[in-house]
Structure prediction request, 134 residues.
Amino acid sequence: MFRLFARIEQQYFKPGLSTGWIAALLLGLLLGATSAAAAVRSIAAAALPAPARRVLVQIAHGGPWRSPKDGIVFGNYERQLPWRPRGYYREYTVPTPGSRNRGARRIVCGGPVRHPDICYYTDDHYASFTAITR
Prediction:
């Protein structure tokens, strides 16, 4: 991969001056593109598990929430979702049968709280997301 960056540097820049930051920039863009592309899969709301469908209804009604952490800002630290300013995404707990804690399932919505632009479902605690279509 470094050879690719060195070749680009030789063609477009003065050799030796900029390889490091060009490599970092291209690598960052490459990683950002793959992270945002991870959320491309989609699922119809009707195909979600029943507890997730109930959470979608609760989101539309503004609650009530199962957990005091429901509705808090989701930081998107894993960069699995498209970049948006902090505060755009909020997370909600989807009950996990047999779990004594919040479990791994969540719905993360972006946009206005009661009428989000987009919602995503994860059943593996933010390792992957699936866009919910209505």
